[in-house]
Write a structure and sequence with these properties.
Distance between the termini: 55 Å
Number of helices: 11
Structural class: alpha/beta
Largest sheet: 6 strands, mixed
Helix content: 40-55%
Number of strands: 6
């Protein structure tokens, strides 16, 4: 792995070789940059990945870093009930090195969950009708929530021409704030959900994938498809415990501008929460009860 001294040497060479007063300084900078990049690549290529330990291989519930604990066995029983960072130890007022590295690794997973995108191959394999909100990229999605609530004009035209209308249930998939949640759970939750709904005698429309979609975009789609109940499966905001958590938002006769209190929510759908297949069956049962009670949100009774 490249050391701090190696980096200092490389940076020193760059500073010595660049003369900003030179008319050709821009070309000089580009030439030196390529040279430094080549040297860094040479140093990095000497690293054997087999020497690097995967610090995330151990689940947080199994990670214990307290020295000379009086009752480690009892502490581990507590840790088994939560992914919280308990028993991580300390060196004086600071985290231990491994604890800090684990924190940074989990933080990187959370960032990737937000800014990565759901693979087009997965969308095609699941047979989803793919559209987008009015956001053009993830940066716009993060900074303009209002645009994430509206389907793009091209998406509206595609839905109007390709989607069945008037089904009992409309299912929507949206990447939301975690593309990793869709990647990890879609293949298990979607078949279980559809099978459960059809088992209750409910018709299911064509499943739609909304790229850069916010929760309220489900209301726009409800208006377009005229469905009775709409189920949105969306990536939840990732935390340091997991970046793969999916949420289900369900509305009965949803409309654009409806209050958030009108939505029924099932959260924490992931392998260490509610497993995807189990969640699919549970959501189908909730939808059946919504048809019986003719409501969703705070008025709905499980």
């Amino acid at each position: 792995m490249i050391s701090e001294n190696d980096l200092k040497d490389l940076i020193g060479k760059v500073l010595k070789e660049i003369d900003l007063s030179d008319a050709g300084s821009a070309a000089k900078v580009e030439q030196v940059t390529r040279s430094v990049a080549s040297q860094i690549e040479t140093v990095v290529s000497d690293v054997d990945d087999s020497e690097l330990n995967d610090i995330t291989a151990i689940e947080m519930s199994d990670f214990f870093a307290i020295d000379n604990a009086e009752n480690k066995a009892e502490y581990m029983k507590l840790k088994a009930k939560t992914p919280a960072r308990l028993g991580i130890g300390r060196t004086g007022p600071r985290y231990k090195t491994e604890t800090m590295l684990r924190f940074r690794a989990d933080h990187a997973v959370a960032i990737d969950s937000v800014f990565n995108e759901v693979a087009e191959e997965l969308v095609a394999e699941a047979g989803l009708i793919a559209v987008s909100s009015q956001c053009e990229d993830k940066d716009m999605y993060v900074t303009r929530p209002d645009l994430g609530r509206i389907i793009s004009d091209e998406g509206v035209a595609k839905i109007q021409s390709e989607c069945r209308k008037g089904a009992d249930v409309q299912i929507i998939i949206a990447d939301g704030l975690s593309s990793s949640a869709i990647t990890a759970n879609l293949k298990n939750i979607l078949p279980a959900l559809k099978q459960g709904l059809e088992g209750y005698g409910l018709s299911v429309g064509d499943t739609v994938f909304i790229k850069f979609g916010r929760v309220a975009s489900m209301d726009h789609l409800t208006d377009l498809t005229n469905s009775k109940v709409t189920v949105m499966l969306v990536g939840e905001r990732p935390g340091l415990a997991t970046g793969e958590s999916m949420g289900a938002y369900i509305t009965y006769e949803g409309t654009v501008g409806m209050p958030e209190a009108g939505r029924t929510v099932i959260s924490n759908i992931h392998r260490r929460g509610t497993p995807a297949a189990e969640a699919g069956a549970h959501i189908a049962n909730i939808v059946k009860k919504m048809f019986e009670q003719k409501c969703s949100g705070v008025g709905f009774r499980f």
